[in-house]
């Protein structure tokens, strides 16, 4: 089936650093979504992207829908301890089903 | 408050028993979904429903069953046929299948 390649798998950074993660696909996607999951909780939507080239911010988070429609990135600026968690990309490509990446686990050290 | 609720938060089951996980939403969403998440892995789709009284199998439907008798409710039954049921189960809903999905808090199932 369709897969999303998400990288990196994990990141260990110091508080205050900027973070960047991305998702790529071999197919064209119609939407890109970024979720954050805290341990033992459900994923929470961070940013939704609907058009190629779209750049959207949500506080310290910025995400872009790639021009080729085959990739997306998420940046977090000036990381803080509560940014710790697993970040998932997801997207719709040619079906009604949402395809998920495997997640990026973020650890922030004070 | 509008949202998605799942109960219970933790569930223990003996081998060979069926167990039903609850999912309710008051967002007036037409579509609902069940996902399974294993440690260190992404989400895999079990079943989804685009409208009341209709549902389709996802990628890993074997050993699971669902019903959608009401718009607000989409219960998932983990049957004894599911060989490896211990996992974190997430329910989600969306206004339509093409729109953004919102997740419940999850139910952790442990088979003893």
Give your account of this protein's structure:
The complex is a heterodimer of chains A (110) and B (112). The relative contact order of chain A is 0.34. Chain A has strands at residues 5-7, 10-14, 19-24, 31-37, 44-49, 55-58, 61-65, 71-76, 85-92, 99-100, 104-109. In chain A, a hairpin with a 5-residue loop joins strand 7 and strand 8. Chain A is mainly β and 110 residues long. With 112 residues, chain B is an all-beta fold. Chain B contains no helices and eleven strands. In chain B, strands 2, 4, 5, 6, 9, 10 and 11 form a seven-stranded mixed β-sheet that branches. In chain B, a hairpin with a 7-residue loop joins strand 9 (87-94) and strand 10. Chain B is globular, with a radius of gyration of 13 Å. The model of chain B has no long low-confidence stretch (mean pLDDT 93). Classes of the chains: A mainly beta (110), B mainly beta (112). At the A-B interface, strand 4, strand 5 and strand 9 of A face strand 5, strand 9 and strand 10 of B.
Characteristic key phrases:
heterodimer, A: 110 residues, mainly beta, six-stranded mixed β-sheet, five-stranded antiparallel β-sheet, 11 strands, globular, B: 112 residues, seven-stranded mixed β-sheet, four-stranded antiparallel β-sheet
Task: Give the averaged pLDDT of chain B, no decimals.
Answer: 93
Sequence stretches where pLDDT stays below 50 over 5 or more residues of chain A: none
Assembly context of the chains: heterodimer
Structural class of chain B: mainly beta
Overall pLDDT level of chain A:
93
Please write the string of helix (H) and strand (E) elements of chain A: EEEEEEEEEEE
Range of helix content of chain B = under 10%
Could you describe the largest sheet of chain A, including whether it forms a barrel?
6 strands, mixed
For the secondary structure, the number of strands of chain B is 11
Euclidean distance between termini CA atoms of chain B: 35 Å
- Counting DSSP E segments of at least 2 residues, the number of strands of chain A comes to 11
Shape of chain B: globular
Output the helix-strand order of chain B: EEEEEEEEEEE
Total helical segments of chain B = 0
Which chain pair has the greatest contact? A-B, 22 and 25 residues
- What percentage of the residues of chain A does DSSP assign to strands (E)? over 45%
Q: Can you give the helix content of chain A as a percent range?
A: under 10%
Please describe the biggest sheet of chain B, giving its number of strands, its sense, and whether it closes into a barrel: 7 strands, mixed
Q: How large, in whole angstroms, is the Cα Rg of chain B?
A: 13 Å
Number of helices of chain A: 0
